Amino acid sequence: MPRILTVVRRTLAPLSRTRAFRALGPRLLPGAERLARRLSGGRVQVSGLLVPSLTLHTVGARSGESRATELMYTPDGRGNAIVAGSNFARDRHPAWTHNLIAHPEARITVGRRRYDVVATRIDTDPDEREAAWARLERQWPGYRGYERDSGRQVRLFRLRLLRELDR
After folding, report:
1. Per-residue pLDDT tens for 132-164?
2. This prediction's pTM
3. Are 159 and 83 contacting, i.e. CB atoms less than 8 angstroms apart?
4. What 3-state class would DSSP assign to 62?
5. 66 vs 20 pLDDT, higher one
6. How far apart, in Å, are the Cα atoms of 144 and each of 32, 39, 42, 47?
7. CA–CA separation, 130 vs 149, rounded Å?
8. 59 has which bridge partners?
9. Residue range 103-118: mean pLDDT, rounded
10. Which of the pair, 125 or 104, is modelled with greater confidence?
11. φ/ψ (deg, to 5) at 34
12. What is the DSSP letter of 166?
């Protein structure tokens, strides 16, 4: 990773753990992500300027309707992605985690590439969970603080790539 990006992440990561960011982030970031996606034709994600990001396309657990959520991801070292349901340290799990539990087959978009994936929970095995958190925190220092501050066990998922779709 370029040194400048490491410095920027280490500088901004503590800001993402502030009360102000946790209050404003959920209100401002989704709209900013939609605007950036629309203006760039899907090439730019706001969060992607600092960390690897993807758009997760799921089926609603209750509604059955298509849902799209922008998420930070961490490569697992085996060609797959790890995502964490941190939900800005709120006390409730984000909706997309319920969707993946109900419908583990999903689709992701990374840049302009689309992939079919299958999600598996990796937060049930203590060793695998610790290894996943270690990877996540190497990418975004202090990220696990969201779990402590939320008062719940954050759901972790591995998104296993099945196939790349036509672009």
Report:
1. 999 999 888 888 988 998 999 999 999 999 988
2. 0.77
3. yes
4. coil
5. 66
6. 24, 32, 29, 18
7. 18
8. 66
9. 92
10. 104
11. -65, -45
12. P
How many beta carbons lie within 10 A of that of residue 136, not counting itself?
Answer: 23
Q: With beta carbons less than 8 A apart as the criterion, state whether 117 and 124 touch.
A: no
Q: How far apart are CA 59 and CA 152, in angstroms?
A: 24
80 secondary structure, DSSP code: -
Residues in the chain: 167
- The sign of the torsion formed by the CA atoms of 63, 163, 138, 27 equals negative
Inter-residue contact 57 to 65 (CB < 8 Å): no
Task: State how beta strands 66-72 and 53-59 pair.
Answer: antiparallel
Contact in structure between 146 and 89 (CB atoms under 8 Å):
yes
| Contact indicator for 72, 148 with CB cutoff of 8 Å | no
Question: Which tokens go with 81?
Answer: 């992605």
Q: Name residue 10's amino acid.
A: R
